[in-house]
Amino acid sequence: MQTLLHNATFFTGRELVSDSALLTHDGIIDGFASRYAVPEDAQQIDCKGLTVMAGLIDLQIAGGGGFLFSGHPDERALNAMASAITSSGTAGFLIAMPTNTADVYRKAFRALREHPHPAVMGLHLEGPYISTAKRGAHARELIRKPSLEDLSALLEEAGGVIRMMTVAPEVCTPEIIKLIRDHGITVAAGHSNASFRQASDGFTNGIETTTHLFNAMSSMHHRDPGLPGAAFYSETACASIIADGIHVDYSMLAIAKKIMQERLFLISDAVEENSSGAYQHIRQHDRFTLPDGTLSGSSLTMIDAVRNCVRYAGIDRYEALKMASIYPARLIRANDRGVIAPGARADLIVLDDELELKGIFTDGRMKFKN
């Protein structure tokens, strides 16, 4: 059955459309049409004069719904995470997997292969080829030195479920980066103590983005601008950023946005409370920490991050929405997500003027929030 959404301003990811209705069919967008030029049996949904756009995209979230996926890499955790995350307006996400044991990796790969979920776009493997000096919350003893043999075995076992991989460019040769890219994986620089030159060489060699800009990386210093400076200086490298005002001050978020423009996008880097395994996260009132107090993750949702960009960093509302939808989708070449366009997935959200989530449209059904 076709479904028509009307009485809305549609933000396509590129422009605003307010004089048409949106037609979908079997979870796919057909395009814009007149409300009165559709089949009589089409389901019509009144969007109450609100804004409708594609569901948000998060390329780095480690937990939700009561589960940290690396602590419970199974179907139950996957489905609980997906349910919680999609209910917050994020329609597609990569599960972030921190540096881990071979057994945990194996279980995670199998869970995603055997229990696919439409919202789960794959894994974002943070590590294991990262810097011990900038490991952040990662377990030192699990960090590995990269080799083509070790990487080949890891990628073969993954069976195609890895969509993004964060590495430290100073420990990865061009051959390592090429092998990751040859498997269709977006390579990110992060958890890295790279100098400006090492980071710049990494971008030249095929690294496309930077993981949680400023966090767990070399500092931007006037004698060596480090990884942040290399990201700023590059004309093509992108960067994710955590807009909670804790991981990065809002003034630095505004500076990074002014410099990087469309190359800067949002992630939540959210985790979940967990008391077992290699990664034990304790919930504080506005963040998560390790038992020793080390900052270990955020409690953000993506729509929280969007609002923070607008309220505290002076970023235009529609630009902030792009940072949480079309920009991350474009980076990992998910062309059917993050936009309203013919052939794209009809996973849509409804927002009011304050960017509060008012409804979610998926599987041909609209669920308005009270």
3D structure, described in words:
This protein is α/β, with parallel strands linked by helices and 370 residues long. It has 2 domains: 84 residues, Urease, subunit C, domain 1 (Roll); 276 residues, Metal-dependent hydrolases (TIM Barrel), CATH 3.20.20.140. 26% of the residues lie in helices and 27% in strands. It contains 10 helices and 21 strands. Strands 1, 2, 3, 4, 5, 19, 20 and 21 form an 8-stranded mixed sheet that branches. Strands 6-9-10-11-12-13 form a 6-stranded parallel sheet. It is globular, with a radius of gyration of 20 Å. The model has no long low-confidence stretch (mean pLDDT 96).
Task: Quickly list its features.
8-stranded mixed sheet, 370 residues, Urease, subunit C, domain 1, 6-stranded parallel sheet, TIM Barrel, 27% strand, alpha/beta, 2 domains
